[in-house]
Design goal:
- The chain is built from 2 helices and 10 strands; from the N terminus they run E-E-E-H-E-E-E-E-E-E-E-H.
- It is mainly beta.
- It has a single domain, classed as Metal Binding Protein, Guanine Nucleotide Exchange Factor, Chain A (Beta Complex).
- The strands form 2 sheets. Strands 6-7-8-9-4-3-10 form a 7-stranded mixed β-sheet. Strands 1-2-5 form a 3-stranded antiparallel β-sheet, with no helix packed on it.
- The longest helix is centred in the last third of the chain and has 8 residues.
Length: about 160
């Protein structure tokens, strides 16, 4: 089980409207089920059990993606945040690994629901890699990006006064 040096593990959504803290993390997984693919808009859902989860700013909106599962997300920016059994919402839900301020704390240890794994998943690591420096147009585009994403740490106020 992973615990942070400061006694808690923090994270939140992309826009900063919803923030959380957990006392510790359990086993991390990637889920290949079709519901996770759709909920994350990705090839799989990366999740980790959050022990002692508390909301420190805002709270997630929820969607019952099945008769047994409720998913939490930011109503403002759409960031997937939680996955929990309907009857276990007060227990230890799972949180999205990408929403952690330090996702390195939750290296996946298992894959679940392999029947829905996309056929090309196993070969993704063989794809060529293009960095922004590989061509001038991409490098210029990347250099001009001004992020509005919440930083990977807690803030007293968000967004900053200058961005309102």
């Amino acid at each position: 089980m992973n615990t942070a040096m400061n006694g808690g593990i923090s994270g939140g959504c992309q826009c900063g409207a919803v923030r959380y803290r957990a006392e510790a993390l359990g086993r991390a997984s990637i889920c290949h089920c079709r519901m996770c693919q759709k909920a994350f808009g990705s090839f799989f859902g990366p999740l980790v059990t959050a022990k002692g989860l508390v909301w420190t700013r805002g709270a997630p909106a929820t969607f019952a993606s099945s008769n047994k599962i409720e998913r939490g997300f930011c109503a403002q920016c759409g960031t997937p945040l939680t996955y929990a059994e309907n009857d276990n919402w007060g227990g230890d839900p799972e949180i999205s690994i990408g929403s952690l301020d330090n996702p390195e704390l939750a290296a996946p240890a298992i894959q679940v629901n392999p029947a829905n794994k996309l056929s090309f998943f196993a070969s993704l690591h063989t794809l060529p890699v293009r960095s922004g420096e590989d061509n001038e147009k991409a490098a210029t585009f990347m250099a001009g990006i001004v992020g509005r994403q919440h930083p990977d740490h807690d803030t007293e106020n968000w967004p900053p006064e200058t961005d309102r």
